[in-house]
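Please check both lines for our workbook:

___
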Amino acid sequence: MSSKRRRHVAVLLVGYVLYTAGVLVAAQHPPTGYEISIYTATPMLFWVGSGVAFLAAVLVGLTVPGGTARHRLSLLLGMLVGISVATLPMIRDYYYYGIGDALSYLGWTRMIAEGALNPVNFLYPGIHSTAVVLTSMSGLPPRRTLQLVVPVFIALYVLFTGLCVARIAGRSNALAVGVFFALLFLPINNIHTYIFPYPTSAAIFFTPFALYLLFRYVGDGQSLLTVAGRRVVTPVGLLLTLAGITAILLHPQSGANVLFIVAAGFGLQVLAHASRRYGLANRIADHRSLAPQAIVVGLFFAVWTPRFDRATGTLQTVVTGLLYGANPADEISQSGSSLSALGSGLDELFVKIFLVSAVLSVVAGLVMLATMSGRLDDRYPDRNDLLRYVTFGFIPVFMLFGIFFITSVTRQPFRYLGFMMVFVTILVAVAVSDGIPVSFSLSEKNWQAAVAVVLVLLIVPQALILHQSPHMYKDSDHVPETYMEGHVTTFEQRDPSVWFAGPRGGPRRFVDAYYGTTYSDYTPTGEHFPGKEEKIPFRVFGNNETTFYSHCRYVPLTSRDYEKEIALYEGFRYSAEDFRSFRQNPDIYRVQSNGDYRLYFVRGEDCLR
């Protein structure tokens, strides 16, 4: 064994040992209550071990020849680190992760598992049905299997992003570059894409798999069915069609982007054939046609999606915004005012969440400009052709981002921004690998060192925004077992005539998680929960609840409410004095408590005394 090989093995050994030690220590430190930041609550050894392991993976992965055992082990180590950081709530045995939409998704999953909801009648049954299958196979409860779906899609995303880059780029270490840049997790912005169970994120993470199949298909020579001497069905083509349908079942809005990519690729092929008629050489005209995939996936989307009011309602909102105008600055201005009151601002938040994405987007934009202007190196025709497919696929997604931003459809533009980051990741990795659009005359060793430094500088700020935390002025999505137990006890012991209310909203999400998700005050089995979304106004909480409300009210309060409002937001909306006054009001009674969860009964003006 050469000295260089021994050094590589030693570096990998140190990385694996420290990574394993960090994970074991983190697993032995489960939460004892609500954690507002998983970063500060996790033992330092986990972060040190993960950081050293990632550095070891990068140093070895970029320097050893592709296809060797050391190369594979370095990529595996990098993937393990990335997946472990992303699934840290599972490693540390969080009862559940995702306190908002994810609780409603848990409700739908339970309904499917119990036979109360037919997946065919559900808009995006992908991750929920997968969780149900895992439950039936493993015996684990849905709250566990729904969280297990997350690392599956993360691994799919990292692996096939690397394979997409390797398929496009010319450098032998392109696979390693693609995998390491995928570990930046650019699609996650925690505004409308998240790392907890979330159909949009799953569909985005699934996209590189579909892209890889497209890259393979256009040059595929195999055939399953031949008609009149023409190959009409290929194995990869069939897989690409199924991938497009799967993406729609994961989430039609994000899945439709896969359809647009395929349709844009077909449009590029049509242009290639047209240019050939005018005597212009174009290799893309010889590629396998994407028309069958575009037609079949398009038909499925047209049959599946319009059956659901949520999908048609979003379309109507977009059309209304385009016709009558909207002001996307309103919500941004409101958020900016809130941040200013906390001593921050939108500029600081932008730097924390989007600076890395913005810088890399500029690089990706330059690659696309070089592709469209024909300034790529002609020595790599296959790479250039595939970059044209990526560039054409990016165009409709970017247009949809602009449409949703102009029409002010809540936070919808950030879904498309997350999807666009898949393209950015691939394009940047290809650019770094092949020196596009600017080729630096660096030696192999200097190139490896430069890429390693860039990755290390980028991974830290990106890791800090992977999970919601006070770093980005958000509270954690941690759901302790005490929260669920407290809400369940309340639901089962409550007086049905008493309504609900709470700071920033009532217990709707926990009602969804326990009974099943609906869009009304009634559960799937008919229980009535009036006020489950009722928010106590800022000026009322701690001041005049008993005169403001006519009905009696249940007000659940958790340790998260206090941590968020006092520790994080410094009493901006609900102050410590408000919480104290609320507890001390003689007409407000604490009727249930388990330490982290407390239920209060508020006598309204019309309540019996």
